[in-house]
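Something for you to look into today, if you have time. I want to see for myself how the chain folds. Leave the record below and I will have a look.
***
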Amino acid sequence: MAEEVVDTLERTAKAPAQARELVRSLSAGESTRRKVELIVSELVTNSVIHTETASPDWVLLRLRCEQSRVSGEVCDPGEGFDWQHNEPDLSEPGGLGLMVVDQLAGKWGVRRNGETCVWFECVEPDA
């Protein structure tokens, strides 16, 4: 049976840590849970940093843990973004979060429908 976690976090500096705690409650394998924890931390951090301050101050986290995979999404009221896989400018701080997501998630993408949602999927290594 699938395990689901859905929570609306206040868009503050504490949101990434709260999101990591929610991931730690999943019954996924340790390797997958660690990947999901990093993915969720990066996505929630992006929502906190890049969503306009005039927007409502929430971040929605949805996680679904099944026998062989964990899927999820992080949504916010922001206008979204267009991501292109480019070589990072390592002389500048930041800018590596979506590269981390791209490397760790089996699949991921962006959906916009009045809000911006970044979805992802991680498959258990032995599945």
Summary: The radius of gyration is 14 Å.
